[in-house]
Design brief:
Its EC number is 1.6.5.5. This is Quinone oxidoreductase 1. It is a single chain. By secondary structure, the protein is an alpha/beta fold. It has helices at about 40-50, 115-135, 150-160, 175-180, 195-205, 220-225, 250-255, 265-270, 270-285, 305-310, and strands at about 1-5, 15-20, 30-40, 60, 65-70, 85, 95-100, 105, 140-145, 165-170, 185-190, 210-215, 230-235, 260, 295-300, 320-324. Helices cover about 30% and strands about 25% of the residues. It is globular, with a radius of gyration of 20 Å. The two termini are about 15 Å apart. The model has no long low-confidence stretch (mean pLDDT about 95).
Length: about 325
């Protein structure tokens, strides 16, 4: 038998159940992957609470790395013995092993270990599409990235710096400010005691920034709009403080003909060729040292509920991984 987390009702971390499950053999197009490490991401809490509704009962988790043990008929993307990683649906990464569509797996280069991959895949591929495709950051631009000491933030701020940007990051404490400075941020705003909108205007000489990357959501959205220069883009990609409330679209014209987008990694990697290209770009910046992956916390997989509590309480920095 294999152990995995499942849940049959929405709620707090206590709804997660660690129990024996039967996997079976891979069917057509599927691969059986034995996990070495599993990644924890904020989106896992959205699925658990029902903010992002899923059909129940359900597995949980979107990111892991390990080894292919078997493949079903018609699988050409991977083979038994391959070291692989993945990020995205279907849910079920919080498990010792699982079946998964083979086309969602990517082979890992030898220079990337499974712990790093499990810490980096979802957050790193998110950083890739945000910085290179949603709004293509150019050398010399100044950008604002909220939650700069979080998992996505640490990767994205290093990557943006590598692309030649001046990076402004927001954080919640002085401790996190030091971490953000060490990971690509030229300017750090501690939003618990500073008005980030005023500080961005001060840093930019009143011009504002061409793009704001906001994974925080409700508490930062309106202030972020006021950080943008005319025709700037608000990239809302998460809801750590709650979902963004409805607002009058007329505000976008009043504040300078602004753009707002709500992208997801699943859309940007829906085609296999895009998935492989995105993962390859991530592995490249890790391999050449432009982006260093910080595993801030590690837990045994069986303690996933406690890890989610820590994540929601903003007690973590960097990426969080589970040891299987």
């Amino acid at each position: 038998m294999t152990k995995a987390f499942t849940y049959d009702r929405f709620g707090g971390p206590e709804v997660l159940k660690w129990a024996d499950v039967t996997i079976g053999n891979p069917g057509p197009g599927e691969a059986l992957v034995r996990h070495d490490h599993v990644g924890l991401n904020f989106i896992d809490t959205y699925h658990r609470t029902g903010l992002y509704p899923v059909e129940l009962p359900s597995g949980i988790g979107m990111e892991a790395a390990g080894t292919v043990e078997a493949v079903g008929d018609g699988v050409t993307e991977v083979a038994p013995g391959d070291r692989v990683a993945y990020a995205g649906g279907p849910l079920g990464a919080y498990a010792e092993a699982r079946l998964i569509p083979a086309h969602r797996l990517v082979r890992m280069p030898a220079v990337v270990d499974t712990r790093t991959a499990a810490a980096a895949m979802l957050q790193g591929m998110t950083a890739e599409y945000l910085l290179r495709r949603t709004f293509a950051v150019q050398p010399g631009q100044t950008i604002l990235f909220h939650a700069a000491a979080g998992g996505v933030g640490l990767i994205a701020c290093q990557w943006a710096k590598h692309l030649g940007a001046t990076v402004i990051g927001t954080v919640g404490s002085d401790e996190k400010a030091e971490i953000a400075r060490a990971n690509g941020c030229d300017h750090v705003i501690v939003y618990s005691r500073e008005n980030f909108t005023d500080r961005v205007r001060e840093i930019t000489g009143g011009a504002g920034v061409p793009v704001v990357y906001d994974g925080v959501g409700k508490s930062t959205f309106m202030g972020s709009l006021d950080c943008l220069s005319p025709r700037g883009m608000m990239v809302s990609f998460g809801n750590a403080s709650g979902a963004v409330e409805p607002f009058n679209l007329g505000l976008l014209s009043q504040k300078g003909s602004l753009y707002v987008t709500r992208p997801t990694m699943m859309t940007y990697t829906a085609k296999r060729e895009d998935l492989v290209a995105t993962a390859s770009a991530l592995f490249d910046v890790i391999a050449n040292g432009a982006v260093k992956i910080t595993v801030g916390h590690s837990y045994p997989l069986a303690e996933a509920a406690e890890a989610q509590r820590a994540l929601e309480a903003r007690e973590t920095t960097g990426s969080v991984v589970f040891e299987v």
